[in-house]
Structure prediction request, 511 residues.
Amino acid sequence: MATDTLATPATLSDSQAKVFKNFIDGEWVESSSGETFENRNPADTRDLVGIFQKSNRDDVNAAVDAAKRAFAKWRLVPAPRRAEIVFRAAEILIERKEQYAREMTREMGKVLAETRGDVQEAIDAGYYNAGEGRRLFGPTVPSEMPNKFAMAVRQPIGICGMITPWNFPMAISSWKLLPAVVCGNTCVIKPAQDTPLSTFNLVRALYDAGLPKGVINVVAGFGSMVGTPLAEHPDVRAVSLTGSSEVGRIIGGIAAKSFKHCSLELGGKNPMIVLDDANLDLAIEGGLWGAFGTTGQRCTATSRMIVQKGVYREFVDRLVERAKKLKVGNGLDETVQMGPAINEKQLQTDLSYVEIGKNEGAKLVCGGNRLDQGEYARGWFMEPTVFIDVDPKMRIAQEEIFGPVVSIIPCDDLENAIEIANGIEYGLSSALYTKDVNKAFSAIRDLYAGITYINAPTIGAEVHLPFGGTKATGNGHREGGIGAIDFYTEWKSVYVDFSDKLQKAQIDRED
Prediction:
């Protein structure tokens, strides 16, 4: 069982900050490059969360070698036994929930209520996948021949490479790691360079729960130096990426060259439709949470609100009034409602889209400015931002911003709203607010997206259902629920002929 005592970085100076090593073959090891990088709090860059290894191809190779050795034994461990370790890890996460949530807020910026939810999602994923250890079902079917038995069983793929994002640094890592190991695979994971600590914390819980060495290996670093070599490695048989559509095209192309399994969960530009008969109080609450939760830094963020003209003006006025009152600040303050952007680059992207929106002719009615005075001077803060009277073809209504910038678009009726909602390159999440059950079911049928919510915003997925989208949002695979089990297993069809004679399927039959 691996152990490595965590310091409390908040009490340390830069020179005393905790140095986190890679985790390979059950040991904490330095990168072969000898280089490191800093992980700082985006709400207060004076706060050095930790120092991590700037890894390279040699480190990836070492991690894959360890995973390859571990796979020979791990695949033979009965699935219920593998699942028991995952269950124990979930119990450990409960004990460490507050500690890990606070560390996640420091490295990622989102408010404590959300980081507690992020850890809870990993706990939920642990319990769900632990149950799947006794439920790795396959079909048993009647044979077309007499005295012949036919069934299909699941088997592990082998070594899985995982590349995770910074916005849900523990939850999304759990979506990938937990089903993979329950299915009998071994893993090498590259966490996002902005938020490596939360992935390390998850993996530490798994090893403290008894996971054998080499089953999960963590290599910190940057995409071109770690992610690309991981996807290219010939011994890696499956790659799972959550990230941008641009990076997804690169990783998908690499994986295709050697026929690796490849799961891509990519961007979104998610619509929330509000009809005239909607409960406006509920719709406004949902819109605020969907648009500005996690500072809009979710692939499922409510970045477009499509509002029927009968309630358009009232909805706009009330939502803008509420958005202006949202408290922005350091997420460690329990009264703060929206934290910072993850880094300076993302903040500049957000601000650039404000200028794009104004130049396109959209009306800016809330926010749009950087916050950089007083308590905001050391972080990457921006006001909650609302554009109204947006044309569906404007860039701010078509392109993923990944920040606290929402576009409100008027529509005539449900059919017009669905046309607008579907008129983008993405298809991840969608939402409809209405009291009309007929319209709700029409929207469920006609919205072309991987997820649809009725009378709830575009965020709020649960771990036991498949998660993912259509079009440029991904390549058809799903995370969560049975979708993850399907990705991390190969099917094997098995035929047992107990007739004691040669039977030729499709040939030996009586017509």
In short: The first strand starts at residue 19 and ends at 20. DSSP finds 13 helices and 24 strands in the chain. The radius of gyration is 24 Å. Residues 270-454 form a domain with the Aldehyde Dehydrogenase; Chain A, domain 2 fold (CATH 3.40.309.10).
